[in-house]
Each structure stands twice: as structure tokens, then as C-alpha cells.
Design a protein that fits this description.
By secondary structure, the protein is of the alpha/beta class. It has helices at 28-34, 38-50, 74-84, 89-95, 102-112, 124-138, 144-163, 173-184, 200-213, 225-232, 245-251, 303-307, 312-318, 321-342, 345-369, 374-397, 402-413; strands spanning 15-22, 56-60, 64-71, 97-100, 193-196, 218-221, 238-240, 254-257, 277-281, 298-302.
């Protein structure tokens, strides 16, 4: 795609876009460059707001970074993504994707319900989507449409989770990490495990390790010692200072790296282990430097390798995909119908306001003559409701005639829907 030639940023019409980069066509290193920290998300949103974008949502995970927004042109969003991440425009042109209107809406439904995840049915994604939504809402970048859309996706996610067995089993990146460790390390319950960082996947991995291995030799280190202590309070782990990292690495048989840093935090110069060491890098971007792979006794496994682990649980989940897609389609169709009907709302409100204005004038005139029954006002208000209700039903049942019908009403009653949008 040639984004530069296709720019039409002066357009007054906004469309709903989803732009992003994901595991489907970009490797872990590339995804890491486009990943956004909390601070980067906030700065991107604030710049978007200053540029007149008033409805935008960011979803950034280990498998994807996406922006959903109303904009005149997708280049506005791509430019913001590349500016605030480490990703290049040329890379996005080759590997990124742009979805518009109904395609973009369908995509956010697939993502939010875990049906587009690298591990099918990974329901952690809906929590990440909610976080992005709340972040935008705090900055005033959410209105009726995006709130209704996210709520519909949440509804679809809940229904799929409760009405199908696609979430059966504890399959997730964290669970896959533990399964990998159990498979590769003998007598794991007796081994020394080091958890570096307190990212969500790392915390979940720690919890799963305790649950499935009964290991009592887990050490937790984080740059912020107090945060490590608060996490350790939930699990049976020992907290050490950040300065102890090289010493604890030397002792460890398994190291799980889950920091939120934007550059490598573990390089070969701090690894002095003389025994086999398995390192799981669960960070995005990668937090284990490439030079660590040069060490003969160290094995480094990243997120992509873990996400490709298939087992009976995942195969079983695939059987429930048709039912899940059916539920998704039902909820999505309801949202699209609401969205379709929403376009009539300004004209209907304008018509109701006009009729109410005329009714008010008639009531005042009659009251001056003192010949208006009290119930007449109520009846006239009911008539206004019936007229606007009948028009709304007609528009829903005759969408092909909607534009022509609305035009007639605008002309006859001299309506200005822009004041009632």
C-alpha cells in the first residue's frame, strides 16, 4: 500500500478504522518495536486529542499493537503509532494492516473474544482491551459509539466463555510457559527458579509454577523492590534486591523474564552460570539480549515459541469454534443494527423538537383563550411520540428508502439535524 499517495486528510467524513501489526505477519522482534508502554500510550492519546480525534482506543499486547479510532484517513493513526513507538512507517507498509468500518468492527470482536489470539480462546485479551478502553475514557476520548462497541465485545466474550467449552483448560501463554518448563526440566520441584520482573504474564507464570510444581525455591526480583514485596505476599516466594540479580542468576536452573522495559535488561555479561540455565523471555519487546544465545549452557525461549505449543486442550478448543463464531455473529449483528439505526437519530430528534415547539405554541395560544382541556397537552405529547415512533419503524423496515424519506421530512419541517447530533 502507498500511504503517502493515498492521503486524504482534509476529508470531512470520518470512518471507523483498525490499524495495527500482529503475530500473523510480524515476528516478535518487529512486534516489539511497535509495542507501546503505558507512558507511550498516554502521549499518543493526548496528541490524537490535540489533532481533533475524539474517539480512539489502543490495544497493545505481546501479540499485537492496534489502534481503533474514528478518523478521516488511516494514515493519521499510523503516523501516531510509528511516532510514539519504535516502529518504522516502511515496516508498517509491508507488514501492517488497515481495516475499515464493518471489517474493523468484526476484527475487534474477534480480538476481544480470543478468537484471533495466537492461542485460541485466550481470554486474557478482553482484560487488556478493557484497560485500553479505561485509559481512553479517562482522557475523554470515549463517546457513545466506542462505549457501546466495547460493551458489546465484552458481552460476546462472556457468552462465548459461558456457553461454549472453548475456554476449557488453563491454556494461555503463562500456562504454556509452565508446561514447557515441566517438559524440559527434570525434577522441577527441586530446582531453583528466578522470576525477574512483575509483568502480568510473569505473575501468572509464577502462580502456575507454584500450583503445578509445588516448587518452594522461587526468588522474585524487580527494579522496584516494594512492588516485588506486594506480589510476593500473594505467593510463597522469596524477594531479593535488584543488585542481587547476577548472584541469583548464577544459582538459578530456570529464569523467567517478565519486565516492562523497552530494551534488553538481561545480557550475557551478567550471566555467570556454570550449570544449564533455561531462560523464558515473556517480555514484549524482548528483554533478553541476543548475545545471551551465544552462551553454550543457556537456552532462551521466547513468546512465539511458547505460543506455538499445541496440546490436546487446544485441539479440543477448535471443536467449539463454530459455536463461538455463531455467538459472536449474533452479538455483532445486534451492534451493527444499533449502529445503522443511530444514523436516523439526529433527524428524528430534530423532528420531535419541531413538533414539540409547534405543540407548545398551540398550547400557549389556547391557554390565552382559556378553552384548552388539561388532558389535551398529554394527548398531544403522546401523538408526537407516536409520529416519531412510526417514522423510526418505517426507516428500520425500509432502509433503501431511508435517505429519500428523511430528505422529505427535513424539507417539509425545515429540520437541521446537526443541532441534534
Amino acid at each position: 500500500m502507498d500511504l503517502e499517495l493515498d492521503m486524504q486528510l482534509n476529508s470531512t467524513t470520518n470512518y471507523f478504522y483498525a490499524v495495527g501489526i500482529s503475530y500473523k505477519n510480524a515476528d516478535l522482534g518487529t512486534r516489539g518495536k511497535f509495542s507501546l508502554s503505558n507512558a507511550q500510550c498516554s502521549s499518543l492519546l493526548l496528541e490524537a486529542k490535540s489533532e481533533g480525534i475524539d474517539e480512539i482506543l489502543i490495544n497493545t499486547t505481546c501479540n499485537r499493537t492496534e489502534i481503533y479510532a474514528y478518523a478521516a484517513h488511516p494514515y493519521e493513526l499510523i503516523k501516531l503509532l510509528c511516532k510514539h513507538s519504535g516502529g518504522a512507517l516502511e515496516t508498517f507498509e509491508n507488514l501492517g494492516y488497515i481495516l475499515k468500518n464493518e471489517e474493523a468492527i468484526h476484527h475487534i470482536f474477534l480480538v476481544g473474544t480470543g478468537l484471533d489470539s495466537q492461542i485460541l480462546g485466550d481470554f486474557e485479551i478482553i482484560g487488556q482491551l478493557k484497560q485500553g478502553f479505561y485509559r481512553s475514557k479517562k482522557l475523554g476520548l470515549v463517546n457513545g459509539l466506542s462505549e457501546r462497541l466495547v460493551n458489546a465485545v465484552i458481552q460476546a466474550s462472556k457468552r462465548i466463555k459461558t456457553e461454549t467449552k472453548i475456554s476449557t483448560g488453563a491454556t494461555s501463554v503463562a500456562f504454556a510457559s509452565v508446561q514447557y518448563i515441566i517438559q524440559k526440566v527434570n525434577d522441577i520441584s527441586t530446582k531453583d527458579i528466578l522470576l525477574f520482573g512483575t509483568g502480568k504474564i510473569g505473575r501468572n507464570t509464577c502462580e502456575n509454577l507454584i500450583k503445578h510444581t509445588s516448587n518452594e525455591h522461587i526468588v522474585l526480583i524487580n527494579r522496584t523492590h516494594e512492588k516485588a514485596k506486594s506480589i510476593a505476599g500473594k505467593f510463597n516466594v522469596l524477594v531479593k534486591e535488584y543488585g542481587d540479580l547476577p548472584t541469583e542468576i548464577r544459582k538459578a536452573d530456570v529464569m523467567v523474564v517478565a519486565t516492562g522495559a523497552q530494551s534488553p535488561t538481561v545480557a550475557k555479561d551478567i550471566i555467570h552460570s556454570t550449570k544449564p540455565l533455561l531462560i523464558l523471555d515473556l517480555s514484549i519487546p524482548s528483554n533478553v539480549h541476543e548475545n545471551v544465545k551465544e552462551l553454550e549452557n543457556v537456552t532462551v525461549v521466547n513468546l512465539d515459541t511458547l505460543s506455538q505449543i499445541t496440546n490436546k486442550t487446544l485441539e479440543e478448543r477448535k471443536k467449539h469454534l463454530p459455536k463461538a463464531l455463531s455467538i459472536l455473529e449474533e452479538v455483532e449483528s445486534e451492534f451493527l443494527q444499533w449502529l445503522h439505526d443511530r444514523q436516523y437519530a439526529p433527524t428524528l430528534r430534530a423532528l420531535k423538537a419541531k413538533l414539540t415547539e409547534q405543540q407548545s405554541a398551540e398550547v400557549k395560544a389556547k391557554k390565552r383563550k382559556q378553552d384548552l382541556p388539561q388532558e389535551a397537552t398529554v394527548v398531544s405529547e403522546q401523538m408526537i411520540q407516536k409520529i416519531t415512533g412510526q417514522l423510526a419503524n418505517y426507516l428500520k423496515e425500509n432502509p433503501s428508502k431511508a435517505s429519500e424519506t428523511l430528505s422529505v421530512f427535513k424539507n417539509v419541517f425545515q429540520l437541521d439535524p446537526s443541532h441534534h447530533a
